Amino acid sequence: MGDETIQRVLHISPKVHIYQIPPQSSAKGHIASQWTSPTSRQIFTARLRVMETSHASSDATIKTSILLEDPSSGELFAEAPYIAPAVVEQALDSSRFFAVRVVGEGGMKATLGMGFEDRTDAFDFGVALQEVRKVLGWEGAKADVTKGNTGKPTVPKVGVKRNWSLKEGETLKVDLGAIGAGKRKDEKGEQPPSYNEGGGFAFLPPPPSLNIKADRRRSREVPKAMAAKVNAVAVEGKKLEELGFDDGEFGEFQ
């Protein structure tokens, strides 16, 4: 069984205008207005087909070509092998115009301008080429035009694995931000004042030192009051011993 060739049409436009374009004047790209004004450089009206060709063998290769044909007879006018993304470049000033690198009879190469009458056709043409780039592995990478197109999808290189483990002597600092900030103490180590349910400040209890002083003051006042009462009884002519009191160990009642 021989090698079977499979062809598939990815896009077709019944009418595109072909222009002879001047040398590129800008390093950024082509300008379509230079093809159409003040004098139109149109040389041909063609039918456009984007053709994909593959082989059924195990080491199958895929080739894509942009064909410009006579719309009446189907005769080939020019072909642009899509071997790199740079083969088709969109004009800087219009989404309907492209610069295409074609190959004629005898291998002669030229860059022609191509314009669509409808923006929808131009958009569909760009989408078809985008799908081709994905299949061939060009999407997201620069193609090397000098090496040509083998038609085989490229496998992206696996990046070098990086070691994120801590080395000897290294430390990991974790910043928790404002977590628990509401419970932090001020610089002096004191808690902020609390609020009662009524909205005002709650009165804090007096410090322990003040309570001790008040207790000591009250303890001195009790013996004095008792001594005054005892003296009042003694005035009536009774002795302190008869009432059951003595002078006290420390002479509190003298």
Biggest sheet layout: 7 strands, antiparallel
- How confident is the prediction overall: mean pLDDT? 74
Label the structural class.
alpha+beta
Radius of gyration: 51 Å
Biggest β-sheet: strands ordered side by side in the sheet: 4-3-2-1-7-6-5
The low-confidence runs, each spanning 5 or more residues with pLDDT under 50, are 141-159
Shape: elongated
Number of strands: 7
Number of helices: 3
In quaternary terms, these chains amount to single chain
Terminal CA distance reads 140 Å
Q: What letter string, H or E per element, gives the SSE order?
A: EHEEEEEEHH
Binned strand content: 15-25%
What do you see in this structure?
- With 254 residues, the protein is an alpha+beta fold.
- Helix content is 20%, strand content 24%.
- It has three helices and seven strands.
- It has helices at 33-36, 119-136, 208-235; strands at residues 5-20, 42-55, 62-69, 76-81, 88-90, 97-103, 109-116.
- The protein has a seven-stranded antiparallel beta sheet.
- Strand 2 (42-55) and strand 3 (62-69) form a beta hairpin.
- The termini are far apart.
Show the helix and strand layout.
Layout: E1 5-20, H1 33-36, E2 42-55, E3 62-69, E4 76-81, E5 88-90, E6 97-103, E7 109-116, H2 119-136, H3 208-235
In short:
The chain has helices at residues 33-36, 119-136, 208-235; strands at 5-20, 42-55, 62-69, 76-81, 88-90, 97-103, 109-116. It has 254 residues and is of the alpha+beta class.
Looking at this protein, list some descriptive labels.
single chain, 254 residues, alpha+beta, 7-stranded antiparallel beta sheet, 20% helix, 24% strand
